[in-house]
């Protein structure tokens, strides 16, 4: 996925977690783990971009 796709998916997950009171702990963990992985990928891309411009 692209950086923009990763950000959009992470935002959607965060909105879902914030809006849902009836989510199971297992689903919460799964979604939080997915969002964390997406944001790590975004961070790597940003670091790679900023490192190549120096």
Helix content: over 70%
Number of strands: 0
Main beta sheet: none
Look at the structure and give the mean pLDDT. Answer: 90
Return the string of H and E elements. HH
Spans of at least 5 consecutive residues whose pLDDT stays below 50 are none
**Structure class:** mainly alpha
| Through-space gap between termini | 26 Å
Strand content: under 5%
Any idea what the radius of gyration is?
Answer: 14 Å
H/I helix tally: 2
The dominant shape is elongated
Your description of this structure?
- The protein has 54 residues and is mainly α.
- Helix content is 83%, strand content 0%.
- The protein is built from two helices and no strands.
- The chain has helices at residues 3-19, 25-52.
- The longest helix has 28 residues, at 25-52.
- The two termini are 26 Å apart.
């Amino acid at each position: 996925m692209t950086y923009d796709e990763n950000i959009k998916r992470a935002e959607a997950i965060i909105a879902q977690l914030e809006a849902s009171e009836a989510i199971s702990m297992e689903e919460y963990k799964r979604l939080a783990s997915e969002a964390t992985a997406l944001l790590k990928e975004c961070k790597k891309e940003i670091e790679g971009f900023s490192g190549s411009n120096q």
